[in-house]
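Q:
Got a chain?
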Amino acid sequence: MGKREIDFDVQEISIKSILVAVDEDDSSSSQKAFNYAVTFARAAKVPLGIVTVLETKDLSVYESMQPDVLEGRRNVMQASMDEYVKKAKEFGVIDVKGFIGEGKPGKVIVQDIIPEFNPDLLVCGSETTEKNSIFIGTQASYMSQNAPCSVIVVR
């Protein structure tokens, strides 16, 4: 067999915005994905979106019917999102926007958040501490198969 020539020119890829998925219940995976995304966003000088999703299946039927329980969870998530946004800005990312969704994480991110933010790149973690729960880390396969943008899975 002879040497095969590759016939194409290398073209630079332009990343205009990055979305990172974080999950408080999967902190190791989320921290790694967050660190990767803020480093890349700062270096590329592009906007960063940060998304977390309230997994409504985690709530019992009783809890989900109690507005104060659901509102309490939303408030905790908002405070957590505010911290992520603050950390990204302190790290040097100039344009940062937080998103909070509700439902199954992979589906919400692909169907709702990506169309709204329109990133060129989605960054997510892949490991999870509890395999029986639906964390963003366990949704990496779904997102990489269904997202309309490139996906980097950070381990």
Q: What stands out?
A: The longest helix spans residues 67-91. Residues 53 and 101 are 4 Å apart (CA to CA). The radius of gyration is 17 Å.
